[in-house]
Amino acid sequence: MDYVIEMLHIRKEFPGIVANDDITLQLKKGEIHALLGENGAGKSTLMNVLFGLYQPEKGEIRVNGKKVEITDPNVANDLGIGMVHQHFMLIDKFSVTENIILGKEPRKKGVIDIKKAEQQVREISDRYGLKVDPRAKISDISVGMQQRVEILKTLYRGADIIIFDEPTAVLTPQEIRELIGIMKTLIKEGKSIILITHKLKEIMEVCDRVTVIRKGKGIATLNVKDTNPQELAHLMVGRDVIFTTEKTEGHPKQAVLEIENLHVKDSRGVEAVKGLNLQVRAGEIVGIAGVDGNGQSELIEAITGLKKAESGVIRLNGKDITNLRPRKVTEAGVGHIPEDRHKYGLVLDFTIGENMVLQTYYKMPVSNKGILNYKEIYKKAKSIISEFDVRTPSEYTKVRALSGGNQQKAIIGREIDRDPDLLIAAQPTRGLDVGAIEFIHKRLVEQRDHGKAVLLVSFELDEIMNLSDRIAVIYEGAFIDIVDPKKTTEQELGLLMAGHRKEKVGEQSNV
Amino acid sequence: MLVSGYNPVNGYIALWNGAFGQVFYIGETLRLATPYIFAGLAIAFAFRTGLFNIGAEGQLIVGWIAAVWVGIAFDLPKAIHLPLAILAAAAAGALWGFIPGLLKARLRVHEVIVTIMMNYIALYSSNYLIRNVLSKQQDTTPHIHHSASLASPFFQKITDYSTLHNGIYLALLAVVVMWFIIEKTALGFELKSVGFNPNASEYAGMNVGRSIILSMVISGAFAGLGGAMEGLGNYGFAFLQSSFSGIGFDGIAVALLGGNTALGVLIAAVLFGALKVGSLNMPIDAGVPNELVNIVIALIILFVASGYMIKWILTRLKKEAK
Amino acid sequence: ACGSNSGNSGSGNKDKFTVALVTDTGGIDDRSFNQSAWEGLQQFGKDNNMTQGKNGYDYLQSKSDADYTTNLNTAVRNGFDLVYGVGYKLQPAIEKIADQRKNTNFAIIDSVITGKKNVASITFKEEEGSFLVGVVAGMATKSNKIGFIGGTDSDLINKFAAGFKAGVKAANPKADVQIQYVGSFDDASKGQSIASAMYKSGVDVIYHAAGGSGKGVFTEAKNIKQDDPSKNVWVIGVDRDQADEGQVTVKGKDYNVTLTSMVKRVDKAVIDLSTKAKNGKFPGGKTIVYGLKEDGVGIAPTQDNLTPEMKAAVKKWTQKIINGDVTIPSKLK
Amino acid sequence: MDFLTALEIIISASLLSAAPLIFTALGGVFSERSGVVNIGLEGLMIMGAFISIVFNLTFAKTFGAWTPWLALLAAMAIGGLFALIHAVASISFRADQTVSGVAINFLALGLAMFLIKKIYGKGQTDTIREYFRQVDIPGLNHIPLIGKLFFQGVTYPSYIAILVAFAVWFIIYKTPFGLRLRSVGEHPMAADTMGINVTKMRYLAVFLSGVFGGIGGAVYAQSITLNFSSSTISGQGYMALAAMIFGKWNPLGAMGAALFFGFAQSLSIIGSNIPYLKEIPSVFLLIAPYVLTILALAGFIGRAEAPKADGVPYIKGER
Ligand SMILES: Nc1ncnc2c1ncn2[C@@H]1O[C@H](COP(=O)(O)OP(=O)(O)OP(=O)(O)O)[C@@H](O)[C@H]1O
Ligand SMILES: Nc1ncnc2c1ncn2[C@@H]1O[C@H](COP(=O)(O)OP(=O)(O)OP(=O)(O)O)[C@@H](O)[C@H]1O
Ligand SMILES: [Mg+2]
Ligand SMILES: [Mg+2]
User: Fold this and answer.
1) Sheet holding A81-84, edge to edge
2) Domain locations in chain A?
3) pLDDT at residue B320 in the model
4) Under a CB-based contact definition with an 8 Å cutoff, are residues A349 and D312 in contact?
5) Do domains A3-237 and A255-497 have the same CATH topology?
6) Which InterPro entries is this protein grouped with (chain A) (predicted)?
7) Cα C315 to Cα D79: distance, rounded to the nearest angstrom
8) Per-residue pLDDT tens digits for C286-322
9) Measured between alpha carbons, how far is B282 from A188 in angstroms, rounded to an integer?
């Protein structure tokens, strides 16, 4: 058999944990090979071993049948192995070109030949249809574009084997489509790919084979056409997983959140929300669907008091909360699961307990006359941990040491525990495995059933369709339409998100 | 020391004797440690809340002047006068911290530069005040009234005339206060949170700008109190200073050596006091030049700071043993 | 209370006379009054066959203002019979300790402590020496613009300034003295900038009393000389003979920009007082003032740059001052 | 004093006092751009000043007018080596970089003073005879007006400092080395995945900070104080640190900030010659440079953004 990569019986330990335990993975030339497993199963670790960032304790690696020692990323590069990391390895302040050529700069008389470099980047970008602007600064481009830069980095170094570590977690559906197209082009050009993803649909769609790992151990390697999502989920979690959250008919009551004619500017001063109106009632989940950058973030920030509303009114339970400070908004009864959990959701150097009282630390019973009651704090943390199944050594553990999924569960636990009337959930399941997604979805529906209003923002159409009682489609800062999930299709949503109104949809279908 | 041809054993004995050998020296060590405790707390407090306060020196100077000013200007019962003078020092230091805090919170100006500049402003302005306001063109101010003094006949007696004064109680109290604020209060929680992650703190409803200002104000107040120790305790007056006292700068090392914790600062400050006082004794007792003391201090700091080095050496030794 | 409760303190328990000095933050190598005091003490030791150490004579250096009391006490505890505090900054510390340690004699240099039987004070009439160099400056200037650069705006420094100004006026009423302070004694860069501004604005003689900041003044003067040896630029040194700071070689020819220096003979005062104390004549409670008459201040021996007229004028004014015909102001206005 | 003279004084004084700060701040830029905070600049300057003076006094007879230049080389070498202590402690042994920097300051002063005592038997050295003199830059000094203002009575190190600032800017922004240096300071793990040896880059950067700090100290000692004592370097390292931050970690910015400090100070010196200002208490002139700096900072709204990984030790395999 022609394997380009063989990782045989790999074992990798971290202090106190075996991340990879006798895992074998073989990659055929020209295939897309999926690597599947729960959060923390050891996928990234295995790939970091292949890329030379970690040294395995046991096992061997063969490239094109020859045994190799990949002692550092340089060796991996020389062997034609490239990796698109789960957390992008990009330098915000650098340009696209600078990020790509770093470490392998074309020079002229000892100086970087930036013209030539840009030329090369443009060429590769064109060849694979990546459409990247070589001069743009990383901090100015979208996440999807950043990912293409990561891909370009591997291609620039002439990689034949490309590892994608959860590339789709941070992408919008459109970007995912494009990425899949890119991967297919790469295969056509003779490259081989290892793809890590939690989205079983994607595996079914693009992959040839799949290797499933669980708790650091290899479970199975299957041909994708011989399997199905249910089986894969079972293999990876060890039990059956329900993909569509069961929920009964909703019974919406009075309006909890009312927004009238809201205008908000983005950080550059350009109007991002333009005259938006919205109502979220008690006992319903309103999903906001839309392509990234259509004003979703600004809308949420305006509600939560993080950004100033230029005009318009935001009411909570009939009370005007427009432009109140975040604390007042929180106190009025708004809970918020932010999109970027590391940046906005958690203080990574605080313990779980401390993070659980990030908004309530100044109130009884957590603090009394300004003095903290740590007993209460950790009591609360303990109850959230057990109720929300946060996997952690203890409530005194620093949040930094938790996996992403468990960090997310902790945030959700904290927000629900505060018992807000309105819960805003932005991309609540990004990067999580199917088991964790199932859990979180259940909790959101539970909130609805307890008579809370839930505002869900997500790029996952599945998630939106699954959970929402109503779907508001946002386009260029306003709602283009509000639809009933039972009476719509992904195609229709897609068109709306692209700005085609219902009537136009009709027109289009006439054409 | 060995390398340079001095007897290290004698040197260290002299150092030890000069710091702890007699009650007098114990008193002196603690007296010197007193302002170090405050400066260390000031810097540690700022560090814990994500700020680098190089301005403890200036805050200490203005605190000193303010305390002496109150000590001279009023004639009040001790129960009022002393607390008033101490509060004045805290307020002056707080003001000196407020300015960089405000500039950082509102205009995002880096606190390191502003505090460095504020040090010079403090030095020159206080010299001006001493000559033109607190005295009639003299180099020192008059002595503070007895009612504002921290001097302690009791300590002088038991330590054989050392200059140890009642400020040490305040310093110990300050250690407890810092520990309490940082570890036990909602305020400390908020300040630490902002220091670690301002974005998340803002999302959680905290007022980031206010926290930054408050941190600098509290930090400055600690340093200002350090000035009161000198003005009301050690000297009892203020004098023209042609250059910085260095306490504020040494405070950086004290804070960091103490791991930026209250108790750590206390220990590091006493260590510093002991090294500095003890070193004065090295030339006369052992013929070792006290230039060596800075080297000794540096090596101690490096050694303590490189905790990882010790771990590294230990694992190396273990490996070799295998 | 007296110091009898400390085991090894007090004097008189040894038959040999011992003496120590505690420096201010300048230390014994400051090339200024601390060093001068120490040199005096060493000379005294030599003259009396004493050895350096606890049984003879020794010094204690203060590294910061906070060290004075510690050092003074250490000196007492080591049984020295006489302890000098060098510099006005030690005054409060000596004042306090003298009350506590009545068996030890103290001497304060550059400041006055009254009413204590175990303390003698030594001061200098810096204004008199400064007056003499002022006379020289007034005669040496061609632009009638003269500068004075002080370390800080303080009593002591202003004594220099006041005497200097009076000397200039006495010799050359048309000349004008600009006074500027560096703000510190260790900022040579600023000292140089101030000197540069003064020289560029036409000043041709600068008298500095600025310690380390004064180094910049010499550097600037040398630079100007270097550029144009015919230029009339001078620096007047302070505390000791600073001729060595002014040497400059231009195209193989040696020049010296140090016009002369005002010297303060702390060494002499130390020897005098130590001798008295050794002989049991310690002038407790008294203030000894060293002026021109006592040879405690004066003009430096290096006078190569002085014209005969200047030397004559110096001689004339010296006589007048010694005779008490003139009194020199010690305060600016 | 006429306006032109005032201008002349301001420019020459700014250039003179800025030179050591520029060199040292450039050293800080190297170090911090690589992610290593360097509060030890003061100590590095002390080392440079110390070595240059010792070298100068020892070899002046042998090398004549070349002595200060050769002393500069010695200061570069020793400064660089000395900085390696900071590198070892903070990069390899993961000591807190600020602590290690503070230790460097203590160590430098202690070592220099101790050695001075040992070598010369006294606490400060003699005055050097061969130093960086003020010169007229040949050719340029004859340009009308400009020549008089900028190219007469200046020291070579001032102009070299400015040229070097441009060179460092070029190195940091235009060469592969610079790109790698910055990448290591922004995102060491990303740099690592690109095959860049983070530790090596940081060592090199800290070494360079020692080299430049050494030059800074040597220039100061050999063009201003002309000898070495415990107070030769007293706070200039912190001012250089401030210049680096003021200049937003950019070589040209740091240079501008250093020149600004010099400018503000000479302005205050000139101030006492201006009749109107003569009347105000001298304290206002003393504090003016520092107040001006704060005002300037407050005016340049927009924050100084430190390199992202500044102060963060890089531990391979840790997230
Ligand atoms: N740097 C590290 N230090 C210590 N332990 C680690 C480290 N990286 C990973 N681990 C451990 O290895 C295990 C596997 O982690 P890994 O990141 O490979 O999971 P993963 O399968 O990629 O998860 P996810 O799907 O969330 O990305 C984790 O459970 C963790 O305990
Ligand atoms: N610095 C660290 N020290 C110890 N363990 C760590 C550290 N960083 C990560 N881990 C461990 O690695 C595991 C996986 O971490 P990782 O961040 O890959 O989680 P994740 O589920 O992939 O999250 P994300 O959604 O952010 O990708 C966690 O279980 C955590 O315990
Ligand atoms: Mg992973
Ligand atoms: Mg993950």
Assistant:
1) A66-68, A58-63, A3-14, A17-28, A217-223, A209-214, A32-36, A192-196, A161-165, A81-84
2) 3-237, 255-497
3) 66
4) no
5) yes
6) AAA+_ATPase, ABC_carbohydrate_import_ATPase, ABC_transporter-like_ATP-bd, ABC_transporter-like_CS, P-loop_NTPase
7) 52
8) 999 999 999 999 999 999 999 999 999 999 999 999 9
9) 79
How far does C4 lie from chain B, in Å, by closest CA?
Answer: 10
Fold entry, domain A3-237? Rossmann fold (3.40.50)
- Give the minimum alpha-carbon distance from B236 to chain C in angstroms, rounded to a whole number: 9
**B216 Cβ contact list (under 8 Å, min separation 6):** B46, B51, B53, B97, B98, B100, B101, B104, B111
Name the closest residue on chain A to residue B195, using Cα atoms: A347
Rounded distance between C-alpha atoms, residue C59 and residue C30, angstroms? 14
pLDDT of residue A510: 34
List the C19-22 sheet strands across, edge first: C57-60, C19-22, C82-86, C105-109, C119-124, C287-290
Q: Whose CA is nearest to atom 1 of ligand 1?
A: D318
Mean pLDDT value across residues C229-255: 91
pLDDT at C6: 40
Strands laid side by side in the C258-264 sheet:
C176-181, C145-150, C205-209, C234-239, C258-264, C297-299
Q: How confident is the model at residue C5 (pLDDT cuts 50, 70, 90)?
A: very low
Q: Write the residue with the smallest CA distance to atom 16 of ligand 1.
A: A42
- Residue A426, both tokens: 């932005």
Size of interface B-D (CB pairs under 8 A): 140
Report the C-alpha gap between A277 and A263 in whole angstroms: 10
Supply the pTM of this predicted model. Answer: 0.90
* Cα C239 to ligand 4 centre (Å): 74
Q: Would you state the pLDDT for residue B319?
A: 65
Q: Of D238, D290, D218, whose CA–CA distance to D41 is shortest? A: D238
Choosing from D314, D316, D319 the residue with most ligand 2 atoms within 8 A of its CB, the one to mutate for a pocket test is D319
Average pLDDT over residues B151-163: 90
* 3-state DSSP of chain C: CCHHHCCCCCCCCCCCCCEEEECCCCCCCCCCHHHHHHHHHHHHHHHCCCCECCCCEEEECCCCHHHHHHHHHHHHHCCCCEEEEECHHHHHHHHHHHHHCCCCEEEEECCCCCCCCCEEEEEECHHHHHHHHHHHHHHHCCCCEEEEEECCCCHHHHHHHHHHHHHHHHHCCCCEEEEEECCCCCCHHHHHHHHHHHHHCCCCEEEEECHHHHHHHHHHHHHHHHHCCCCCCEEEEEECCCHHHCEEEECCEEEECEEEEEEECHHHHHHHHHHHHHCCCCCCCCEEEECCCCCCEEECCCCCCCCHHHHHHHHHHHHHHHHCCCCCCCCCC
Give the per-residue pLDDT at C3: 36
Do D and C make contact via 3 or more CB pairs under 8 A? The reply is: yes
The whole-number average pLDDT for the span C47-60 is 92
Residues from chain D contacting residue C150 (CB–CB below 8 Å): none
Confidence category of residue D303, pLDDT binned at 50, 70, 90: low
Question: What is the chain D residue with the closest CA to B112?
Answer: D242
The answer on pLDDT for B50 being more than 50 is yes
In Å, how far is D175's CA from the nearest CA of chain A?
A: 5
Instruction: Kindly report, residue by residue over D260-273, the tens digit of the pLDDT.
Output: 998 988 888 887 77
Residues of A in contact with B200 (CB under 8 A): 343-347, 358
Residue D311 predicted with pLDDT over 80: yes
Class of domain D3-303: mainly alpha
Give the pLDDT score at D302.
55
Which of A209-213, B92-96, B279-283, C203-207 is predicted with the least confidence, judged by mean pLDDT? B279-283
CA separation for the pair A222, C275 (Å, rounded): 105
Low-confidence stretches of chain A (pLDDT < 70) are 1, 502-511
Kindly report the CATH class assigned to A255-497.
alpha beta
pLDDT at C63: 87
